[in-house]
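Aim 2 progress. For Glycerol-3-phosphate acyltransferase RAM2, the working sequence is reproduced below.
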Amino acid sequence: MVITTFPTVDKCTSIGREKDTVVADMDGTLLRGRSSFPYFALVAFEVGGVLRLLFLLLASPLAGILYYFVSESAGIQVLIFSTFAGMKVSDIESIARAVLPKFYSGDLHPESWKVFSSCGKRCVLTANPRVMVEAFLKEFLGADMVLGTEIGTYKGRATGFVKQPGVLVGKNKADALKKAFGETKPEIGLGDRHTDFPFLALCKEGYIVPPKPEVKVVTTSKLPKPIIFHDGRLVQKPTPLMALLIILWIPVGFILACLRIAAGSLLPMPVVYYAFWALGVRVIVKGNPPPPVKKSDNKSGVLFICSHRTLLDPIFLSTALCRPIPAVTYSVSRLSEIISPIKTVRLNRDRALDSSMIKKLLQEGDLAICPEGTTCREPFLLRFSALFAELTNELVPVAMVNKMSMFHGTTARGWKGMDPFYFFMNPSPAYEVTFLKKLPYELTCKSGKSSHEVANYIQRVIAATLSYECTTFTRKDKYRALAGNDGTVVEKPKIKKRIMGC
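Predicted structure tokens for this construct:
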């Protein structure tokens, strides 16, 4: 039995460390959790689907036995092989950039983060694959250097094996530290287990982070950079038990999703609200929705401007109003077009708006738009707001909120045709539709306000209702951050379609 010779991290002062270098382990040190299984499970599910997650779950008992009774290195190698074998390295990097940061940031250890963030130079030394953790550590924790296990690759795909010198555990960590720093000794070393002792001994000061899962996590406001964009299908961190529940639920959930989608697509809209409640989908309506416009009144229809949550926004808007509301959309999958119960106006490939078609729809009745842009800098919202003055001053902001317990109903990376299915696969999903007050005449374009002023006012009103902070990020920013592209979909321009949302 190895006797601990290092003090605990709470004994380390964080004042005056601006010129010091810190080297920290990850699992159990920077993170409260000592198990890396949930993060491997996220990669397995997001890239390989439920079958890859099942394979990882079946391999995890072997990994646990090897980890605790043979060697840490062998156990981690089993997790790496069962997760990565055959995957494109680019897909792993995409998940590391778009999915993992939210889950990693939700488990930061407060005491080790206080020390780590106080140092001028930050290095992370971890047994985790570098490709899986580097994006989060450098972009959101301000790490200057990440030393992790290097995975083997062949023609752009992971082989499932690791490169020499193997998994960075024990002596391999110490050797990696020596190679990176040479004869220079880092001022502070942080670890959490006896296999970290070799590299801690190479630091001027070494500290152990004791297992305290009950400590409060670091709030995201204390991170050097806030995590704004997040992708991925899973709502909760997939522990082994949660992973098992997901695997068992998916067949049942898919059948349930098909029933819910059929109800929304085939039943008359006044009945859909009650059908959803009977099938476990909660639709919560707040505020006072305006009545439908009568054609005999010679008035233009109401333009509902909704905050964007999923492709289903206009469907639930229509459900809340008990009548189908046509929607303006950019692009959706062919499957979503087939199963949609509402009519839409499509943008052209360059996002140009057909003003004559929109004017015609507003003359016939109400219309909805659910822009992904967060400010008037978004070209979609800019071009749309430019039409406010000539089309209508009947503008009603709508704040949308959805609640899911197992799956997210939207994605930037994956096939968007599955978005409605994933949303309805949740055991009891909910949509909260809040109708805000119609914009007074003096705040519309027809009263002399610019389209930018109107668009930004609507954004602020919706953000205040949802307790969100307005940003200057656009739809392109989101897709560049999450999917590595600008979100442009190349396809033939079409005007009228029946789709599952906008």
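The CA atoms of residues 99 and 232 lie 5 Å apart. This observation will guide construct design in the next reporting period.
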